[in-house]
Amino acid sequence: xxxxxxxxxxxxxxxxxxxxxxxxxxxxxxxxxxxxxxxxxxxxxxxxxxxxxxxxxxxxxxxxxxxxxxxxxxxxxxxxxxxxxxxxxxxxxxxxxxxxxxxxxx
Amino acid sequence: xxxxxxxxxxxxxxxxxxxxxxxxxxxxxxxxxxxxxxxxxxxxxxxxxxxxxxxxxxxxxxxxxxxxxxxxxxxxxxxxxxxxxxxxxxxxxxxxxxxxxxxxxxxxxxxxxxxxxxxxxxxxxxxxxxxxxxxxxxxxxxxxxxxxxxxxxxxxxxxxxxxxxxxxxxxxxxxxxxxxxxxxxxxxxxxxxxxxxxxxxxxxxxxxxxxxxxxxxxxxxxxxxxxxxxxxxxxxx
Lengths: 106, 237
Hints:
The complex is a heterodimer of chains A (106) and B (237). With 106 residues, chain A is mainly beta.
């Protein structure tokens, strides 16, 4: 069975922050294979899903999602800022995130 | 209208006289005459029943409101914007093979037929090839590939429009009936014959066009997925 992945893989690097103050409403995402801010332009506006599991079932599933969108590039090396419907919890730092391919402009 | 670009707050690209000249104000401002509103009489005659009442009575055409707010409320301005159907991407042309990114058929490659009035795209698998029926899809959830099927002069029947896909109005069952039905699977309605006939008719033309190209049927049958080392921003679709 071939691959059925329809999203780009990303990692949560942390909250948007200065040295001593953090702004948890925006998270930084590193998308696999993206190394320049020109490459990151492709992903702007794309929806992002932070998927995680929990013990309690909600609406018939133990899998939960926090949806968000890629908002803007961060720096010159392809990292990207994104905002989620509710802020990402700090335990998400270092975890994987799915950057969907929609809304598509190709 | 030639708008003067803003260079800094309060400083436009063109001076007041230059902007007026660009707008052609020397020709004078156009005055449009609104058509005179239809004359409605203030009172209308209404027949009244009962013996003791006179046969007719003069009643005001529009009643005065029952309540007035304590203070004058500010009315929001009426918007002059009207929603328009989404503009079709230049890469999407009838016969283009699209990749569906979300929904029940995500990952499937389908053939684009036409854009409907609502702006949604009408696509078909074809059904025999990959199980995708005549379906509407939003442009934002689709990747257009460079692969095209030559549909020639084929035009989809105009009866297949947005109203064709409307859900039939379901009779709302009372709470008691639902309570008794609980646990039993709901009887599924058989797929309407007319819709399968429409599907076959459209697919006939599409499949003959697909057969002309080598491996295209296999391509449409295969699903799309990203694998290791593939990055969407580097791919040419």
